[in-house]
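2024-03-11 09:14:02 DEBUG pipeline.ingest accepted 1 chain
2024-03-11 09:14:02 DEBUG pipeline.ingest length=811
2024-03-11 09:14:03 DEBUG pipeline.predict start
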Amino acid sequence: MDRTQGQAEPVEQTAAASVAPAVASAAAGPAAAPAPGPVARIITLTAGDFTLTVNPVDGSEIEPRRPGTGGTAPAKRDAADRAARDAAARPPALPGPAAPAPPLLAREEERERLVRLLGRGRSVRLTGPAGSGRSALLDAVGADCTGLAPDGVVRLSGYGHQQAGELLHALYAAVYEASAERPERTQLLARVRDIGAIVLLDDLEMGGTALDELLRATPECAYLLAATPDTRAPSDDSHLEEVFLGGLGRADCVELLEAGTGRPLTEEENAWAGDLRFASEGLPLRFVQAAALLRQRDERNQSSAEDDDDEPGVFEERPRDAAFVALPTLAEGAAPAELLASRVSESARAALRIACALGGEMPHHAHLPALVGDTHADAAVAELLGCGLLTPVGTRYRLAAGVVRQLEEAGFADTAAEEARTAARHYAWWTGHASVTPERVASEADAVLAALAGADVVAAVLLARTAAPAFAASRHWEAWERVLRSGAEAARKAGEVAEQAYFHHELGVHALCEGRLDRARAELEASIGLRGALADKRGTVAGRRALALVTDREKAGVEVSPPLRLEPPASASEAVTTVVPAVVPAVSKSAPTTPMAAVAAVAPVAPVPAVAPVVPVIGRAQAPTTLSEVFEEAFPLDPKPAVAAPVVPAPLRAAEPRRKPVLLAAAGALTVVVLGTVVSLAMTGSDPETPAGGVGPAASSTPTAGTSGGAGVPGTGGNDPAPDPGTTAPDASEPASPEPGLSPDPNQSQRTPSRKPSSTPPSRTPSSTGPTGTSSNPEPTQSVPTTPPVSTPPPTPTPTSTTPANPSATA
């Protein structure tokens, strides 16, 4: 077909053209990146038991790892790979001629001691204030220890790490060739245990239990830990050697100044150097900055002298210095950041303003031309490093100790908000570009996080949206989580519901990979709810798939290790346990045959230890014979209906055949009481009434034991009549129960006193016994006994008195 018609031939259609519709459709999603190209960058990696597909459009997709893939430890790096890795871990080379490094002075003794201890496998903690030369000493010790360990020398940075997990992952990535794998914690601990290397850990910020965890996880490694005095101290069980790094002497300070200026010092400069050493306690960083002050002074004085020799020009832009530049004061030498910044180039001052806005983090020198607006701004890093305003931290640079505070006081932080917004927009474009690898984004993690913290909500959402997939793909998951949390908060403030749903989904996937199931469920449910409100079907499906994995993980964890949940029983008869002594009673032939006695008689008696067993008291006829029956009844798998049974200790419980005699005896006693009551009521109704007047009955001629005051009946007054001839006076001390061995005759009638009380309360009148033995009160008083006695009359009644007695007055 002719090309002039505007139609290209199929053979000339490139791969980029074929992918363009897919990229365009992906960019039309709810969250499109600023550039059309980087949206389609999808990376798949292994995270423990899961396969993670980092999808910047709809959110990362996670699924179980296929059987037979992964699970084996990768191979370790050889010497060439370790050398390349070590070179990549150093700060980048700066453009222009390489500046000479400051000499390492007065550190030979510490250097030899550290090499000797590390060669013996001992771990050392090197403590020194900021600016004491700890990083330079670590470089020298690392060069001396080459070849001592099987896995070589590994250089790590502990800046910003408060836990040991991320450092262990960095150590694992430095030794093993695992480009697309992030092992779970169990696999990680199993693999780092086999690492035998000398680890140089600079800028340590953790101590205590976190440091102990790092040391215990790698027992075959020897650590050289560089920390400041204000860092948390290690525990007493860490067994770390302590080496303190102090300041330099006067002669060493002068030598360092001469090496920095390239000439010998004058007498005035020698005296100034002595005062500066006293004020700065001999820190090498202060004399590197002092040497930069002297170089700037020499340049200015030399340029002034050359201008005096020449004829002044008419169109001269730079004004001449009116006078000779004097030596800096002692205060300027102790805090030289403001004076040094005033004498550097404009691009260097702009870079300092950006670093102050980012909290002291200096961006990579390749970003400075775009951030500053000067094509030669990449040379500013080398200029600031030579002045001692920057210090290397891992693979990057940041402002030296105390410089941020001094620059903020000088007014370099007045435009911090604008600088942070510019940096955030620049990093949003850079991190989302297709040509930028995730490893390069991870090397700029601190600067990206600082820009994210200082930018406005719109720029923060855009930066977090593009940087989060890159951090996830680079396996720098601590930075990934921080970016996601900052992005979720910024999206909430900006009202971006779709972006907020994306961040919650990514946080749920991150928590699932880390094994935090509760956090994963909460984040995924929040994301599904937000995407359901937006009618985002693809995002909702991705969230539900991840949530199903959380549910499966929870069920698998319960099946493998179920929690101990002992719920209370439904009734007291199901699971009541009592502690009884382990005593086996002797069984005789005459003993009643009960289920418990039969079990005790048949089962052999083994020697019982001196421990009281726990016997469950269960509502059953026979005692359990095996241990499984005991636990089955005490902790049933299925709920049982409540059984109304008396709760009695097992050894004292009455057997089933002994219940009937007890019930029959109780019924018989109740029948006797009822019959006695009926008979007494009938006899009371047939008794003659006592006359109201007249002389009372005569006293009995035979006194009865137990009478009180006179010859009356016990419990009555002296004029009370004697008992009936057919009855016997009961003793007050005897109980009101029938005598054993005597049974009542049903054919004979018994005279039982009535229990019905009199209508008038009984009253006792003190009796006066006269010569005739009668009371002064002629009216007798009837008394009602409190307990009805039951007695059997003798076969032949013998009257004791001729006077008829009142049957109701018997005691």
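2024-03-11 09:14:41 DEBUG pipeline.report DSSP finds 27 helices and 14 strands in the chain.
2024-03-11 09:14:41 DEBUG pipeline.predict end
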